[in-house]
């Protein structure tokens, strides 16, 4: 199924304007909360309407069906994060400095977007066709953003099996944070980022020496 073509308003995702963008942001956050608690399959459009106070007609201004809503949640989440991380890499500095920025940015974003992280982690396979392809491409671009830095640290090409595994190990730590993060016990988030980067760098150094 092709990705729906929305009205062109000259602005952001979902055919929004500067006036309607905050409403879309509220809608996606509320819908992500429902899907995180109930799963995509157990969340209906009527549930979203009841949760947000939108009418059913009002909801369909922003999306065509439930899968389109899931697509918007994932596209918005990965799109914003990728924009942040591309800027972090473009800022320059050593590979270690860029790795530190990437890890810190990921943690800062997702500790404030737990529901979106959970939905993006568990519900990718709920998308089909072009929608799946768009999100898979965003995820690949984000993977390569980190893999390039990991490759510099290990002195290998980013497409080697070793770099692939090391990159996925880091993503494993980052993406599972919603399962254990406790705001009272684990803040500040920056300290978690420092600890993760230290663990990664020590592990990479140990693997290089072996």
Q: How would you characterize the overall build of this protein?
A:
Helix content is about 70%, strand content about 0%. The protein is mostly helical and about 210 residues long. The chain has a domain at about 65-210: Orthogonal Bundle (Tetracycline Repressor, domain 2). The radius of gyration is 19 Å and the shape is elongated. Mean pLDDT is about 85; it is low at about 1-15.
The averaged pLDDT comes out at: 86
E-strand count: 0
Rg, Cα atoms, Å: 19 Å
Poorly predicted regions: 1-14
Measure the end-to-end span.
49 Å
- The CATH topology assignment of the domain at 66-209 is Tetracycline Repressor, domain 2
CATH architecture of the domain at 66-209: Orthogonal Bundle
Give the CATH class of the domain at 66-209. Mainly Alpha
Q: What is the CATH homology-level superfamily of the domain at 66-209?
A: Tetracycline Repressor, domain 2
**What oligomeric state do these chains adopt?**
single chain
Number of helices: 10
Helix- and strand-based class? mainly alpha
Strand content: under 5%
Major beta sheet, specifics? Answer: none
Helical residue percent? 55-70%
The ordered H/E elements are HHHHHHHHHH
